[in-house]
Amino acid sequence: MIFLVSGITLAQQCPTISYPTPGSSDVPVDATISWPLVDGITGYSLNLGTTPGGTDILNRRSAGLTNTFTPPVGLPENTRIYVSISMYLTEGNFIFCAQDFYFETENVTTPPGCTTLSEPMAETANVDNEAEIRWNYASRATGYYLTIGTTQGGDEILPRTDIGNRLTYHPPANLPPETDIYVTIVPYNENGSATGCGPEHFKTGSGTIDCGPYIDPVTGETVKLGPEITFPNQVSVCTNDLPTSVSATDQADGYRWFRINIDNTETLLSESAAVELSELGLYRYVAYNEVERNDATYECADSRIFRVVASELPRITGVEQENGPEGTDLMVEVAGAGNYEYALDTRGGPFQESPVFESVPMGVHTLFVRDKNGCGVQEKLISLGLPSDAFPKFFTPNGDGINDYWQFDPAHEYSRIQLQSIYIFDRYGMFLTQIFPGTIGWDGRVSGKLQPASSYWFRARDVFDNEVTGFFALKR
What range does the domain containing 131 cover? Predict the structure, then answer.
């Protein structure tokens, strides 16, 4: 069953998981769930539960455009897991997919293995004494015992503690400065605890400094030792340009770029002034200055979370016209996941924010729609009527070489009008002849016979199917 939010009908179909196979059993508790890619969307949302429609394992977590998901702390054993994958569209629309498939996990009969520190990494030095401790998931674990001390086997910072099924721990007080910190993590499940898990260690730095902003007691000026962050909150990229490179906008001694994962953990992507982004979603940008104090180097940093969103070439889907007293008002209708601006008749602009152009004169015009993020320009040719004054009022086919032929006059303001044909009739409505654009025109003869001086009328049609009729005179 599929429900379409906002009442719109869309072609995208809700995907079914490709692994594990729906209805399968003995699925590993550390399985990575995968599903087929769906075109034309901006992201997926995943629900996992132990009952139909349940979200007790995972509640509407955004997975970006990645078509896989690995539960960060594994899945419960010997359990029926219900899965649904919904989809984000452009402009805030959302396709909600009902949960209608499941799989069953394995019955775990052995204890888990050991795990390792992920942050701070083992053997690193000069670690911030306010650091949060993180470790990697141990397959089949349902919880962890954590011990922290300043010597191998020591537990004065944290005696052996069952902290449950999570992968982070933030000490309630700062770690001691310039000290070796030993961390022992022992995963467990109902079958027992991992064995042989020795301590890992890192060394803290000499402490912290006040990076500001603060008031200098001597000068009275505001001092901030870290860089000023100007990087934007949102970065738009063309859908066809991923992966794309993004550069820092701030002057600093160093930079770090992190991908914010759906479980709120972070993955370091780059430690230079630029980073290559391969997918849409949330990121964190860090800029820092290095400050020397008491023969030690400290980092004074600032950061910004930003979102990478899709932008694309505009598609002109229509042009509404409304007649006004001084011309025609136009409203350009556009589709696409982008931020667009508009111009009339000149590709280079000026461009305007509004898609409405007022009092546009009769004639042929070109509309230009440009993506502000550089994804391209689309154009559309339109014709506002076919003016009768573009045709001569008379001609004098007397052979003197002056005004001897009657034909459409492509003056400058009508130079882009393209006609299909012109029909000429006598004053009584009798068809006489047909002439075509690009020819010399009518010489006042029909089947070689001179026509009399009189009034004649014409009917012309352009390539947009605009039609105009009018009169002209043949003078001899």
Answer: 117-203
